[in-house]
Q: What sequence folds into this?
DNA sequence: ATATTTACCTATTGACTTAGTAGGTAATTA
DNA sequence: TAATTACCTACTAAGTCAATAGGTAAATAT
């Protein structure tokens, strides 16, 4: 399951893209428009900043802004920065020890194929695609 | 993420299919071959019994057996009986209240499309397909 | 200078889920 | 009657989720 972190992250990115006429957009405004707790969004936006997807500037007139055009972001990278991984099973997640049964497992190819399909799906959609919905 | 319940359920189903020459297969044997706690498998197999996917018989000589041929099971139904839902987001899971923002949400179509793709993927694979890996 | 506004930081929490374990009873067969 | 098996209820330790709380640092407006 995609958690609120990933889902809210996409909504934040869309919101920033839709208000790009302002140089910097305060998180307060995003939180109000999206009806999400600003405190919680801080956690999410930090992942986006650390991941190099958005930039933040403190102080009056500050806020966040996108670093690229909406069509230059893909949905997959936004989700991965906030969710950690898009992998469907622990056996294929990079931060777990390799499964001792991986060579004989009859189900592993299923998960591999599914993960590949998932990756292609989310990396094939751009932020611009979402905005046009 | 697909949890161990769904993953183990598939391995149990494959194991039962591979040993179908015995009428009933004791869970003890499945647990030993698959190297999974028998106690934990009991929980998983109960979901499969309640879901009408396998049948169990108590007593000596008892155990579990498939009710259909492997090609007549699809992976999706096995996962849904044990995981509860295959939906990627709470907003589209049937047992949650509909999201108040669903009409304006720019991301909902993404999750719908992804869930549809996921459904088609898992419902398009049979138990037999897994055995042939 | 000072007040205001904003990002950015660490820590905490209650509810829930996950991945089992424990200890039985009921059913069936040898 | 003994052995074997499914089936049942309850419990639990660890982890995750979805936030909240309470600050400090940075930048600008007055």
A:
């Amino acid at each position: 399951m995609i958690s609120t972190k990933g889902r809210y992250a996409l909504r934040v990115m869309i919101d920033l893209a839709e208000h790009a006429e302002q140089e910097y957009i305060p998180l307060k405004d995003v939180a109000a428009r999206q009806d999400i707790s600003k405190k919680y969004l801080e956690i999410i936006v930090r992942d986006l900043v650390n991941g190099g997807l958005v930039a933040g500037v403190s102080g009056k007139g500050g806020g966040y802004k996108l670093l690229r055009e909406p069509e230059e972001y893909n949905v997959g990278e936004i989700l991965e920065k906030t969710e950690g991984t898009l992998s469907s099973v622990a056996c294929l997640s990079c931060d777990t020890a390799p499964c001792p049964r991986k060579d004989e497992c009859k189900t592993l190819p299923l998960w591999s194929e599914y993960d590949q399909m998932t990756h292609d799906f989310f990396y094939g959609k751009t932020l611009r695609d979402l905005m046009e919905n």
Remarks:
- The helical segments of chain B are 4-18, 27-34, 38-50, 75-83, 108-123, 127-131.
- The two ends of chain B are 22 Å apart (CA to CA).
- The beta strands of chain B are 54-57, 63-66.
- Chain B touches chain A at residues 1-2, 7, 10-11, 14, 35, 75, 87-91, 101, 105-107, 109-111, 113-114, 117-118, 121-122, 125, 130-131, 133 (CB under 8 Å).
